[in-house]
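Interim report, section 4.2 (structural modelling).
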Amino acid sequence: MGDFFQLRPASERPGWSWWSVVLLVTAGLMAVPSFYDLAFQLDTSVIFVLALLALSMSFLWGYVGILSLGQTAMFGLGGYVYAVMSLNTGDTTTAALAGILLPALFAAFLGYFLIWGRISDIYFSVITLVVTLILEKAIRATSGDQFVVGSVRLNGQNGIPGVPALQVPWDPQTELFIDGVFYLTAACMMLVYIGLRLLLVTRFGQVLVGMRENRRRVELLGYDSRYYQLGVFTLCGAIAGLAGVLFAVWGNFVGPSMFDLNQAAQVVIWVIVGGRMSLAGPIIGTAAVVYLTTWLGTQGVGQVTLVLGAVLTVFVLLFKKGLVPSLADLLSWLANGAKGRSRP
Amino acid sequence: MSAPILETRQLRKSFGGVHAIDQVDFTLWPGELRCLIGPNGAGKSTFFKMLTGQHRPTSGQIFLEGKDITKAGAHEIGRMGIGIKNQVPDVFDGLSVRENLTLAARFALDKAKAAVKLEEVVDRLQLQSVMGRTVGELAHGQRQWVEIGMVVAREPKLVLLDEPSAGMSTEETARTAELIREINRDATVVVVEHDMQFIRSIAAMVTVFHQGRILVEEEVSVALSDERVRDVYLGRSAA
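Predicted structure of the assembly:
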């Protein structure tokens, strides 16, 4: 379990214990549709989608030291690109790929100016947040009849309903139903999680972690940190775009709220609660907070936002590292304690 | 004689109207161990920052083995085989000693060679006992050594060190002096320092800076007995 809970990347490959946990979890997820009803699958799928969005933010923040508050920009773009393209062409496979590629290109474009401009970290955060809010306002302003892409009206505030379900690429007649979407989102989340973990082992990944610790040392060692920053920002843009596509597929709907402040802030909360310095953390944080939000909604408390705020405050004050790393600390403390006691 | 490994021509750096470094011609030969000394504000740190690409000169040129590197960024200079250590340790505080050194070695070498190099560096720096510790928790002197380890792990041909013994105990300083002499066996070394004891113990050529210019360039014993050098250190007018 040590690998799974790990606080910082080991320079070594993940061990067999990590692989067995990953395989077990994957197997468990794949079995869910046989045991649970469609409503449960639907609720869980969206957690996987949002966890992807959280991963795209936490990887940048926790491992590279780049705090991007605007991953929702790429998330929303991914959703809108998929919606507009699939409604226009009827070909969902190309639309989904474009929904990943275009946000990645957008991230590269934005990142180029932010990183080559040597903008300080705090402005990086502010500008990325402003970018997502600008996109939100821009989309909200497209209610008129004149805002049409191809044959699709953007609809401003109301968003685009009736986004097509994803077709199986090799069999376009078959569309993914709720259980299909469940499998797809679960697989995407696990693959991205595994991919990011393995990325940390590579030299590229180690340079990224080095940049978080000390950017000047990385430069003095001979590495142009700008290319690494741009590379990882683009990669995380693609992940956020993927999350956006899946979100559109899941709900058959895209709207400007995908870009808004509420959405952007929630990503930060998921990551803080789960723990940014771990890859499992943001996934568990997303699941916990989304579940809590839904549950509070059904309890008729009425003050969901207030309760969430309190939860965030507690975490920031008491569990600075987040849920998963704190748990890991507890485990290692217990293990050490046990060792200490067993000594004569 | 071979070509100089490092050379500056008419190097100048101005902050506002003040010339922190004023028309400096400096030559360093391969295999040398050179100390840059001078009282506070003499310009030695500014000079160091320009050599390492962290400050851009106002005018003049810097050559590495005859190649103009005046406009090179810090990462390019690092890539040319120059190992740099600033005064404040630039280490990866959140990572273990092993991870720090591995990162440095792997930047330059493939995995197998990096592992061999790692062993060698750890032996040389006697860091075996702290390999698993987080660098941020180590004592100041040890963090400095970890950084020196990161610098030499890349097998640089030229090593530039800014006050490597700052804040160290007498014992640690002696150990650092020994390390620098060892590094000098394979690489040309430039050390910015103002601890006289330390400079005497590494017994090198010294370049004395004063008011942005080179005042004296001599063997350490000769330089330190020079009347002008005594004057600037005692704050008397050098003119």
